[in-house]
Amino acid sequence: MTSWEERDHEFIMPTYTKQKLPIAIARGEGNSLYDTEGHQYLDLFTGLAVNTLGHSHPKIIATLKDQAEKFLHISNVYYNPPAIRLAEKLSKATNNGKVFFTNSGTEATEAFVKWLHKYEKEATSGQSGIVVLRQSFHGRTLGALKLTRQPHVYQDFPYSDIPVYEVEPENLEQLEAALENKPAALLMEPVLGSAGILPLSQFFMETAYQLCRENDVLFCLDEIQTGMGRTGELFAYQHYHIDPDAILFAKGIGGGLPLGGMIVADRFSGLFQTGDHGTTFAPSPMAAALGNTVLEVLTDDGVMQTAAEQATYLWDALEHLQQTSAVVEEVRGKGLMLGVVLNGDADAIREVRETMLQKGFLIDVTQKTIIRLLPPLTITREDIDTFVQAFAETIEHVVQ
Ligand SMILES: *Cc1c(COP(=O)(O)O)cnc(C)c1O
Questions:
Q1: Looking at CB atoms within 10 Å, which of 254, 278, 337, 350 has the fewest?
Q2: One domain for residues 16 and 159
Q3: Which residues line the pocket of ligand 1, CB cutoff 6 A?
Q4: Cβ distance 5 to 321 under 8 Å?
Q5: pLDDT at residue 253 above 60?
Q6: Claim to verify: residue 296 and residue 338 sit in the same structural domain
Q7: Mean of the per-residue pLDDT values for the chain?
Q8: Which domain covers residue 204, as residue numbers?
Q9: Ligand 1 centroid from CA 82, angstroms
Q10: Per-residue 3-state assignment (H helix, E strand, C coil) for 355-390
Q11: What atom of ligand 1 comes closest to residue 141's alpha carbon?
Q12: How far, in Å, CA of 285 to CA of 335, rounded?
């Protein structure tokens, strides 16, 4: 193990070093990962909501083998059957819109911003900017377009900053005030993930939607973390009476391979025309083939259904823990996207994570003190029982 640690520090930039756990992964199987020393870990992190079906799912492996023998990459100058099939599935399962594929979440946001700019220019009389929520997370890239010096690529898009208006989650007064600036869109995560698993209430979501409709502002959702069945519906917005104009997706869609994108409601889907946007790799035929398989397993094989039952079971167990333990302050989230707020400081929470690792459980911490659980949708009752028991013992022992 130490040799992997040393070599990582020698050759890989330290942008993640302090967040790394001291294990090197050798393989995964079912809902577990195994390290190079053979220790087993129940994976309640799933590579940040990516490995929705756990590891080495037989249907994922079968699709991988099948597609690998056909082609890995083609290009957007040919028709790409796995991607067309996936786009059709996504469209029919959501707003019947059209899909633009990317390789990652942040690229989905970038595509959205460019698309919105065309919307501002071609479909509004001067509306501009995006309303977002305080503590939201939509990606990390800076915008390579500024450095691309081919006028036909950049001339239709702005150099300057897009106006951004920040409002507090659940604060409708602030939202109403922000809408007075005549923005073009509102973009929100239905459950703010890295902000500490903050679910937006049904009332806020539906009222924000109505306000957007009344003010002619596009209602757009970042479902990069909440999508792919994580909250109990394929996309979290489907719990509510709302019909988003754009939906960003990534993380779980590619079955473990990089894939993302946006689905835009049909009435706006003509805004992107030939040359307006593009990328060499996306949609990767391999990732798209896996995407089809993930969707089939989630819906046709009933995994989303059983995941909803397991979610209820896990919520009951954690809420029981909250009632019986002085250490658990709050359990929040939606479906299999959970935040457990413990009554302890950042050091204590780090120790909880490390102790759980030693006991064979992979969990995440976000906002320094909030335990984030993103288990695979294939989690079983036995998994939940062993996890909750170890977690209860650990927090009583570590946090006072
Ligand atoms: C992870 C995430 C992103 C960024 O996705 P990357 O693939 O890491 O670029 C954007 N929005 C949300 C809500 C996310 O969870």
A1: 278
A2: no
A3: 104-106, 137-139, 189, 193, 222, 224-225, 250-251
A4: no
A5: yes
A6: no
A7: 95
A8: 71-300
A9: 23
A10: HHHHHCEECEEECCCEEEECCCCCCCHHHHHHHHHH
A11: 9
A12: 30
